[in-house]
Structures are given as structure tokens and as C-alpha cells.
Design a protein that fits this description.
The complex is a heterodimer. In chain A, 77% of the residues lie in helices and 0% in strands. Chain A is mainly α. Chain A has a domain of 220 residues: Orthogonal Bundle (MetI-like fold). The termini of chain A are close together. By secondary structure, chain B is an all-alpha fold. Classes of the chains: A mainly alpha, B mainly alpha.
Chain lengths: 317, 279
């Protein structure tokens, strides 16, 4: 199959998955049996308030009609009105999403060296003390809940040594320097948490590749160890690592929620948690859809990236 | 006879797990104070010999509360994982055995569920379950199970596909057995290994899910001494009394490290065993 057709079929499959996700999310958020108004306001709420909410939700209409209306509006960028803030959902989530995007990009900058450097150090001399030590550290970090590691960093770098503010506050009139300073600690935390997955994955493939024939060949040619590692081994390990990184975006989205909560960061994750706490249905529906869409999109990019980087994939399947 | 050699990961994992199981069973009896006893000491005290993790705002002994949390976290984790593995295995094995459009539909659905990050999916269910059932242990078990279901289903389906083309499955089909009976009678016995590994791997992550939900206020409710919940309750004591936060956190982390090492050791042993048999 040609590259274009394969890529196109991946895109169609992704759009279809997104459609299914919208059914699931809308179904659970607004189509569950039982009275949504009672679930949102609680049993003791006055009947008048419940009735008002029912009208606002359009509960007098069938689910299918409501879903169709929601989708048509959503495709045009209208995500509905937030119950809690009385503002359009996009006005509320938009700026939060921008903050989280900045946070994630900065986290990615931390992630790159934090995953590549330890893994290369490990692969240079596998099964030696340094390799073992880094393995132990990654196992411990991987096993620790994100809120524990994040709280630990907060304690160390914002409470014990006051390098960073313990609460992230973002204003409209911040300079770039202030903005970066506020973002650094949560971004470093996120980058490190993400890197624990990356390091393990990259170490395995680096060690595998070091033992393959073409690397032996390069060594026999008399190339230096460093040159072999950087020119022959690393480029070949980067494709599976890229795929693993894309899969980690699922973790990243969950991790963002926790890290943002710990640092009181005004981002998408904390906005979603707040909405879930107050059962702000329009924000919840939009937020979960956005999270799923990001995940699907990044995986699509990784799939297509792999197709470009590795022509052999185009002949199978 | 050659002496059996166990991977060190397995040994360390087993030790950590044994300690945690002991604490879970005996902890509440060995604890110096009842976990819910107020004014066991003066409120908000730092670590001391009588109160190793200090005391909280109500004067409860945080060390005793931490000891009491073990069995809660372990029971919920095992329960939730069991629900997820059993339901996921049922759907996955059936899907792989029956094949055709049913399989296609089921797998597209699991794909869609997997596109929603686990934590967000869990938060969504808890939030929409409504205030009436929020904080109930049964809800937490169901949430963990529901989150694992699509993940386990995909593994179970892959295991089923390995077997369905074999002769004994064909024989069962020719006997006229339906897909459900074949999945249970022929495919399941051949997938137990995969499912056990799935159980171990998933059980290793379940305490983190439960702790995170508790930490975010979507898990068990106070005054339950669940570790994630305790960490969020004591967050504002961080400057005065770090052990109030890191004590429960350390317990949670060591439990998960133990589970992960144990699983890793087991699978290393299984690989080794296969390699030896093949040689």
C-alpha cells in the first residue's frame, strides 16, 4: 500500500475513534438513566432548582437530539455555557489550555535530556553499577504515585529551599522571565515523571541495538565508542522511543491533572478537576473530549511519523 | 539437583509485600493508639517517640492512622483489579473466539475507551455517580475495574487469537458449541498465564489510582485513613510536620514498589524457565 493511503486510513480510523469517544462521554455525562438534575444538585435540592436545571440541560428533549445539537455546535467551536462560571466553556477552558500547553512544552524540554542522558549512560556499560543504580531510581520513581513525587519536589524546592513559589500564580501582566520562573518547578516535575518511562524504554532498545551486527561492524571499522553510540545506535533507538513517548501522552494528561493540583497551577487539568467536583456538565463533556482528542492526535502523529521513518512498515498490512 | 535461583527483584518484592501484608493484618492491633482516637496527643505535634509521624489537627496519632490504612488500600486494589480482570477476560476471550463483526465492534469500543486517560475516566465516573454514592468503597472497586476492563480485554483477546486456530478449538466448533462455551472451556485454560500476569501488573497500579482519587477528593471520604486522602488532608501541615504527608506516601510507594518488583521477578523467572525448556 502506498504511504498516502496508509496515512489516510489511520486518519479516518482516528476520526472514527474520536466519534466513539464522543458517544461514550456524552452518553455517560448526559444520557445516563435516572434524573441528571438530581445527580448534579443532590437529593435534597429544591424541586424548582432541579426543574430549572432540567430545562437548561434540555432534558425534555430526547438524548439523540441533544447529542446532535451538541456535536453540530461543538464542531463550530461552541462548547456550550459553563454552569459554574456562566461563561462560554471555550472562554473558560481556552486560557487554561494555553497555560497547560506552555507547561507541557517546557516539561518536554526537561524530558529530552532527562530521558536520553541516563539511558545512554546505562547502555554504555550495561549491568554495571551505574546501570543498576539508574534502574533502581527509575523503578522507585515509576512506582511512586505522582502526587507523592510532586509533593516531595514542592517540599524540597519551594518550602525547604525557597527557589520557587509553592503556589503558581499567573497574571496577565507578567514578564516572560516571571512566567518561566513560575512554570519551571511544575514543568521539571512533569518532565522527570515522564522521563522515568522514557529512560526504561530507551535503555532496553539501546542495549538491544548495541548487540546487533551493524554496530559490531562499526566497532570493527575502528570507530570510537562515543561515535558508534551517537551516530549508529541512538538514531535507531529513537523511533521506538518516539512511539513510547506518544503513548506516554496518556500518562502526561493524567500527570498534568495531579501536578497542576499539587502546585495549584491554573491549567486545563485543574479546571477539569474543578468542573468534575461541581458536576459542571458542559465543561466536563468538553474537557474530557479535548483530553481524548489530544491523545488520539498525538498517537496519530506518532503512527505517521513511524511510517515516514521506517519504510518497512508500509509493506506490512 | 540444581538449586533454584530466584531473581533478586522477586526476593525484594516478596519481602516488601510480606511486610505490607503483615502491617495490613497486624497493624491495627500493634498501633500505639486507636486510629480514630482524638486528643491522643496535643494537636499538630512534630515527630516524637510517642508519635512517630506526629499528631494531626484533631490530635489523632498519624502513625496509627497510617498503619490502619494498609488493609483498606490492599483490599480495594485487589478487589478492583479482580473485577477488571474477570470482566475484561470475559469480554476479550469471547471477542477473540467469536470473531467477525462482533469482535470488530467490541475492539473499536475498547479503543475508544482507551483514548480517555485512565485517571480522567475514573474521575468522570466518580463525579457522575453523584453525591449519594461518592466515597463508597464499592464505587471505587467498580471504578478501578471499569478502568482496567478495556485494557485487560485487549490482552485477553490477543491471547484468544493465539489459540482459536488450533485443532481442539476447531473440534469444539464442529461439535456445535457456541462461542461463549468455547471461550470458557477451551480458550480460557490456555490463557490463564496471560491473565495472571495481567492481574499482577494491574494490581501494581491500582493502589496509585485509589490513592490519587483520594488525594484529589474523589476517593474515600474522611475520616477513613486511606493514604492518598491522608496526604491531601495533611498537606497544610507540610511545613510543620512533613512526616504527616510523607509517612503515608512512603507506605503507598513501598507497596507499589513491592508489587512491581514481585511481578517483574515473576515474569523474569517465567522467561528464564521458557528459555531453559527450549534449550
Amino acid at each position: 500500500m502506498s504511504f498516502l493511503r496508509l496515512a489516510l486510513s489511520r486518519i479516518v480510523a482516528s476520526v472514527f475513534t474520536l466519534f466513539l469517544v464522543s458517544l461514550i462521554v456524552f452518553g455517560t455525562a448526559q444520557g445516563l438513566p435516572g434524573d441528571a438534575a438530581t445527580r448534579i444538585l443532590g437529593r435534597e435540592a429544591p424541586p424548582a432548582a432541579k426543574e430549572r436545571l432540567r430545562l437548561e440541560l434540555g432534558l425534555d428533549m430526547p438524548v439523540v437530539t441533544r447529542y446532535a445539537q451538541w456535536v453540530t455546535a461543538a464542531v463550530q467551536g461552541d462548547l456550550g455555557m459553563s454552569f459554574a462560571t456562566r461563561k462560554p466553556v471555550s472562554d473558560y477552558l481556552g486560557p487554561r489550555l494555553r497555560n497547560t500547553l506552555a507547561l507541557s512544552l517546557l516539561a518536554f524540554l526537561f524530558y529530552l535530556p532527562l530521558s536520553i542522558l541516563p539511558a545512554t549512560l546505562q547502555a554504555r556499560k550495561p549491568d554495571r553499577p551505574l546501570d543498576r543504580l539508574i534502574t533502581v531510581i527509575t523503578v522507585v520513581l515509576l512506582s511512586s504515585p505522582e502526587f507523592l513525587s510532586a509533593t516531595l519536589f514542592l517540599f524540597a524546592f519551594a518550602v525547604h529551599w525557597r527557589f520557587f513559589p509553592p503556589m503558581v500564580q499567573l497574571h496577565d501582566v507578567m514578564s516572560w522571565g516571571e512566567y518561566l520562573h513560575a512554570l519551571t518547578l511544575p514543568a521539571a516535575t512533569l518532565g522527570l515523571l515522564l522521563a522515568t518511562y522514557g529512560v526504561r524504554m530507551l535503555r532496553e532498545s539501546l542495549v538491544d541495538i548495541t548487540r546487533s551486527d551493524f554496530v559490531l561492524m562499526a566497532e570493527f571499522k575502528g570507530l570510537s565508542r562515543a561515535r558508534v553510540l551517537w551516530r549508529h545506535v541512538l538514531p535507531n533507538a529513537l523511533i521506538p522511543w518516539m512511539n513510547a513517548t506518544a503513548l506516554n501522552v496518556a500518562f502526561l494528561i493524567g500527570g498534568v491533572v495531579v501536578v497542576e493540583k499539587v502546585f495549584a497551577f491554573p491549567g486545563f487539568g485543574s479546571a477539569l478537576v474543578d468542573a468534575l467536583q461541581f458536576r459542571d456538565l458542559p465543561v466536563i463533556t468538553a474537557g474530557v473530549m479535548i483530553a481524548a482528542a489530544i491523545f488520539i492526535f498525538v498517537n496519530l502523529l506518532a503512527d505517521i511519523g513511524a511510517l515516514i521513518a521506517n519504510p518497512r512498515l508500509r509493506t506490512q498490512g | 539437583m540444581m538449586r533454584a535461583r530466584y531473581p533478586s527483584a522477586l526476593k525484594w518484592g516478596a519481602v516488601l509485600l510480606a511486610v505490607h501484608l503483615l502491617v495490613a493484618v497486624l497493624g491495627p492491633f500493634l498501633a500505639p493508639w486507636a486510629q480514630d482516637q482524638m486528643m491522643a496527643g496535643l494537636p499538630i505535634q512534630g515527630a516524637s517517640l510517642t508519635h512517630p509521624f506526629g499528631t494531626d489537627q484533631m490530635g489523632r496519632d498519624i502513625f496509627s492512622r497510617t498503619l490502619a490504612g494498609g488493609w483498606i488500600v490492599i483490599t480495594l486494589s485487589v478487589g478492583g483489579t479482580l473485577v477488571g480482570v474477570i470482566a475484561g477476560a470475559a469480554i476479550g476471550l469471547f471477542s477473540g473466539t467469536v470473531g467477525g463483526w462482533i469482535d470488530e465492534v467490541l475492539m473499536r469500543l475498547t479503543e475508544a475507551f482507551l483514548a480517555i486517560p485512565f485517571l480522567i475516566f475514573a474521575l468522570l465516573i466518580v463525579s457522575l455517580a453523584g453525591p449519594g454514592v461518592q466515597g463508597s468503597p464499592v464505587l471505587l472497586i467498580l471504578v478501578v475495574g471499569a478502568g482496567y476492563l478495556p485494557r485487560v480485554a485487549r490482552m485477553a483477546r490477543a491471547a484468544a487469537l493465539d489459540v482459536v486456530s488450533r485443532d481442539f478449538v476447531l473440534a469444539a466448533r464442529l461439535r456445535g458449541e457456541n462461542a461463549w462455551t468455547i471461550a470458557r472451556g477451551e480458550v480460557l485454560p490456555n490463557a490463564t498465564g496471560v491473565l495472571l500476569v495481567e492481574f499482577a501488573v494491574r494490581a501494581g497500579y491500582a493502589p496509585i489510582v485509589i490513592g490519587t482519587l483520594g488525594f484529589l477528593g474523589f476517593g474515600l471520604k474522611p475520616p477513613t485513613p486511606e493514604w492518598g486522602l491522608m496526604m491531601s488532608e495533611y498537606r497544610n501541615l507540610l511545613t510543620v510536620q512533613p512526616m504527616a504527608v510523607f509517612g503515608p506516601g512512603l507506605m503507598l510507594a513501598t507497596l507499589v514498589i513491592g508489587l512491581n518488583l514481585f511481578t517483574e521477578g515473576l515474569s523474569a523467572m517465567a522467561r528464564h524457565g521458557r528459555a531453559e525448556r527450549a534449550a
